Each structure stands twice: as C-alpha cells, then as structure tokens.
UniProtKB/TrEMBL annotation:
Keywords: Lyase, NADP, Nodulation
Annotated GO biological process: 'de novo' GDP-L-fucose biosynthetic process
Species annotation: Ruegeria intermedia
EC number: 4.2.1.47
Functional description taken from the UniProt entry: Catalyzes the conversion of GDP-D-mannose to GDP-4-dehydro-6-deoxy-D-mannose.
Annotated family: Belongs to the NAD(P)-dependent epimerase/dehydratase family. GDP-mannose 4,6-dehydratase subfamily.
InterPro entries from the UniProt entry: GDP_Man_deHydtase (IPR006368), NAD(P)-bd_dom (IPR016040), NAD(P)-bd_dom_sf (IPR036291)
UniProt-recorded name of the protein: GDP-mannose 4,6-dehydratase
Signal peptide (residue range): none
Requisite cofactors: NADP(+)
C-alpha cells in the first residue's frame, strides 16, 4: 500500500532531499510551503509534478507553523502515515533578533502539529519525526555528545527546540504516539542556505575567485563543528520512523573541524593556498599561492577573509562533537560522505554558478550578487 508523508519545511535543504528520498521509495509526498512574495520552491522545482496530471505523487499546500487551523485542516485532508516536522526559523544568529517568532514557529509549531494529530484521532496511525538539534547541548557537558548527555541551550533557537524535543517525548509517553527526535548535528550540502557558515564560505570564496566579491567577512572561526552531508541525514530521518518502537537518536559523523579549517579546504578546492595571521578581530587570511585556473581574479598577497564582529553571537556554542554509536548499532546507519567530500561538492556547485555570473559580467550582463549575509 502506498504510504503518505507530510513534510513541513519541504522547501528547505532537508525537506528537498527528504522529498526526493520518499518519492523514490514510492511514497505520496505532501509538503507545506509558505506564501512568499517571490518564488521559494527552487530546491524542489526539479521534482515538482503538475497537479493537472493524473495522480501526482508530490502535492504542495500553503501553510505556516504559526497557523493552527491551517495545520489541522491539512493533516485532516492528507491523513498522513508519517509527519516530518522540518519547518523552522533555523538560523541561530537570527533567533537572537527574532526570539518570539522563533519560539512561535520552532516550539509552539511542534505542539500545534502534535495536537492536530491527537485531536483528529490519528495518534495511532500517524508517526511523527521532530527535527531536533545538537544546539540543545549548547554549553557542552560531555564530549562527545550522545543521547544521554544533558542539554544546555545557548540561543532562543535552541531553547525553542528544547521545548519541541520534550513535547515530542511527552506525547509519546502520554498518548502512546509514535513520536521521536532525531538529534542531528550540522549537515550541509550545495542546497544549504546561503547564510549558514559552510555555504557562506563556499559561495563567498567562489565569487571572490571569479572577481564577483572582494572579501569574506566572518565571525568566530575558532568554532568547532561535526559536519555531515544532508543526504546521509535525511535517510536516517526516515529510518527512525520505520522501527518497531519510537526512540530518539543522535546523528553525527563523530569528527570535528574548525570553521578556519573549512575556509582552508574550500580555498584549496579552488586552487588557492591561504595563510592565517593576526588574532581575534584582527585575524586575516592572505593568499600565498594559486594553482589551476579557477581563481583568475586573485594574486598572492590578496586578503580574502577578515573578521567582522557583527557575526559574533551574544552566546556562542564553541564546540560540538556527536557520538552516533546508537544509530550505527541499532539502525545500521553509516554516513557515506565525509565533511571534506561535502566541502568539495559545495565548492564545485558554487564555482559553477560564479563562473556563469562572471561570464555574463564579461559580456556586460551583470547579475547582482546578493549582499544577504549571516
Ligand atoms: P532550512 O532553513 O533550509 O529550511 C527550513 C524550512 O522551514 C524551509 O522550508 C522554510 O520555508 C520552512 N519554514 C520556516 N518558517 C516556517 C513557518 N513559519 N512555517 C512553515 N515553514 C516554515 O533548514 P534545514 O533544512 O537545514 O533544517 C531542517 C530542520 O532541521 C530545521 O527544523 C532545523 O532547525 C533542523 N536542524 C537542521 C540542522 C542542519 O544542520 N541543517 C541540524 C539540526 C536540526 P522557506 O523556504 O519559505 O523559508
Ligand atoms: P549553527 O550553524 O549555528 O551551528 O546552526 P552556522 O553554520 O550558522 O554556524 C556554525 C558556526 O560557525 C560560526 N560562524 C559563522 N556562522 C555564520 N552563520 N556566519 C558567519 O559569518 C560565521 N562565522 C563564524 C558560528 O558562530 C557557529 O559557531 C546550524 C543550523 O542549521 C541549525 O538550524 C542547526 O540546529 C544546527 O546547525 C545544528
């Protein structure tokens, strides 16, 4: 029998990979997209199915995690076997600027979905996945972090996600719902939002190499993260809902690198060797050598990275390192891609775009490079 899944956040990085994954498994996939004044479905346009065709396997519904009646109606219509709650205001730095909205979407949004499932009498039919996060560990109490490590959230985003973590556990315990948390460490891809650190670096350096931007302005580059590939992580989201019993799992690679290392890797993929000098807000990265033809706009001695304190956070999560032993032992999950391979893929994709823009510029058709940062 065809299974039906509902994905909140289908237009985001994970939502797009998960939708592809579930369609390939034969699911009927429903997604909630937000009304926006410009197109926001770029990540899923390649799997879009014309609703005028008979029996489309992907259907989109307008909605918002702040809108209870809308969510309830969609769940009633779709009668999903599985709900993946991936929708969120997912940027940690932005959550300090918009804490109340972040709480409404990232905390109460989860409650709205769980209540809708219960209210509609679907608590024995519908399985629920909550996109929990390594940000819950915040000020880390144990290295590496596992399912039993105590939480200490450090941002309005993480505090909102803490509520969602516990309300998911609570609905499992109180109502016997199949509801579980994936505690996912950072995962990236060429579809990563442009203002998260990895994509900011790969896109920024590709643009600089092609002469479209001058310099990358960064925050805390000492920060350490356990980075995986989003494709590997959405596979685990599905696996978690296929078990006999609902449980929470940490998903991570078990390896940790600094933002500074990620800058070095990305530059190396473009044939650029860099040297870091200075310290604190005066630290810079200077080009020392260039190989190949991907960075025609650069010369040795050019400064391609500076620190801008506006990207420091009021409270930082300095270090995250996950222990995925439970996922490996119970679910047989192994990440297929390393952080370095993922970085190479991201640089390749961003370089392709930058080269297209540079070519247009050369012929007098300049495309504006978005100044949106983060
Ligand atoms: P993205 O930011 O790429 O995607 C977020 C999605 O949520 C987008 O589709 C966005 O819509 C949607 N959204 C935002 N606000 C609302 C709202 N009010 N109502 C409905 N939908 C909304 O995030 P990722 O794909 O990277 O992450 C998916 C989930 O996993 C998020 O919940 C995130 O917090 C969590 N997570 C992510 C990790 C990571 O490293 N990527 C790690 C751990 C957890 P639109 O496209 O219109 O903006
Ligand atoms: P994070 O991801 O906060 O871990 O949350 P992000 O990529 O934004 O930051 C990672 C680390 O890099 C440091 N950093 C910068 N970050 C950004 N965005 N821009 C900069 O210029 C910059 N310079 C240094 C940050 O301070 C931080 O330490 C992501 C999101 O996907 C969350 O939704 C998810 O829950 C967690 O990962 C796990």
């Amino acid at each position: 029998m065809t299974k039906t899944a509902l994905i909140t956040g289908i237009t985001g990085q994970d939502g797009s990979y998960l939708a592809e994954f579930l369609l390939a498994k034969g699911y009927e996939v429903h997604g909630i997209k937000r009304r926006a004044s410009s197109f926001n479905t770029q990540r899923i346009d390649h799997i879009y199915q014309d609703p005028h065709e008979p029996d489309p396997k992907l259907r989109l519904h307008y909605g918002d995690l702040t809108d209870t009646s809308n969510l309830t109606r969609i769940i009633q219509e779709v009668q999903p076997d599985e709900v993946y709650n991936l929708g969120a205001q997912s940027h940690v730095a932005v959550s300090f600027e918009a804490p109340e909205y972040t709480a409404d979407v990232d905390a109460i949004g989860t409650l709205r979905l769980l209540e809708a499932i219960r209210f509609l009498g679907l608590e024995k039919k519908t399985r629920f996945y909550q996109a929990s996060t390594s940000e819950l560990y915040g000020l880390v109490q144990e290295i590496p972090q596992r399912e039993t490590t105590p939480f200490h959230p450090r941002s309005p985003y993480a505090v909102a996600k803490l509520y969602s973590y516990w309300i998911t556990v609570n609905y499992r315990e109180a109502y016997g719902m199949y509801a579980c948390n994936g505690i996912l460490f950072n995962h990236e891809s060429p579809r990563r939002g442009e203002t998260f650190v990895t994509r900011k670096i790969t896109r920024g350096l590709a643009n600089i190499a092609q002469g479209l931007e001058q310099c990358l302005y960064m925050g805390n580059i000492d920060s350490l993260r356990d980075w995986g590939h989003a494709k590997d992580y959405v596979r685990m989201q599905w696996m978690m809902l296929q078990q006999d019993q609902p449980e929470d799992f940490v998903i991570a690679t078990g390896k940790q690198y600094s933002v500074r290392e990620f800058i070095e890797w990305s530059a190396a993929e473009l044939g650029i060797a860099v040297e870091f000098s200075g310290s604190g807000v005066d630290e810079i990265a200077t080009v020392t050598a260039i190989e190949g033809e991907d960075a025609p706009a650069l010369n040795p001695g050019d400064v391609i990275m500076r620190i801008d304190p506006q990207y420091f956070r009021p409270a930082e999560v300095d270090t995250l390192l996950g222990d995925p032993t439970k996922a490996k032992e119970k679910l047989g999950w192994e990440p297929e891609l390393t952080a370095r391979e993922m970085c190479a893929e991201m640089v390749r994709e961003d370089l392709r775009t930058a080269k297209r823009h540079a070519l247009l510029k050369e012929h007098g058709y300049e495309m504006p490079v978005s100044l949106e940062n983060g």
